[in-house]
Amino acid sequence: MSADQRTHEKISPQLCGRAEELGAGHAKVVLDASQEMAADWRGLIYAAMLAVNEPTVVPANATAKFLAPVVVGDRLEAEATVEQTDGKKRSVKVTVRRAGAAVMEGEFLAVVPDGHILDVARSRPRA
Question: Which of the residues 16, 50, 87, 93 has the least number of beta carbons within 10 Å of its own beta carbon?
């Protein structure tokens, strides 16, 4: 990896994938699908957040297309690229591949708040 990981430092590589490449605005995560993660898509989210690589990054919106089924034992590679930056917002494109073939594509809107999202949320008055 060419950059230091600055976000999601406590995430489980067994459940969300292992960062294999990390650079400015780009990340590649490899995930070995296991029984514990059946019907889950955390690796896609993790790759998107890792591409932004800011300590306070959070997902705000996502769309995903499932292109092919994935089964326990498959090795998945999620590659994420920041396509656009607008202030605190980042548009991130993610492609998940199995043996080089796309099995899922997603687009994320990530936001980088000034502080941790739970601290930011607590400081806002409730309606």
Answer: 87
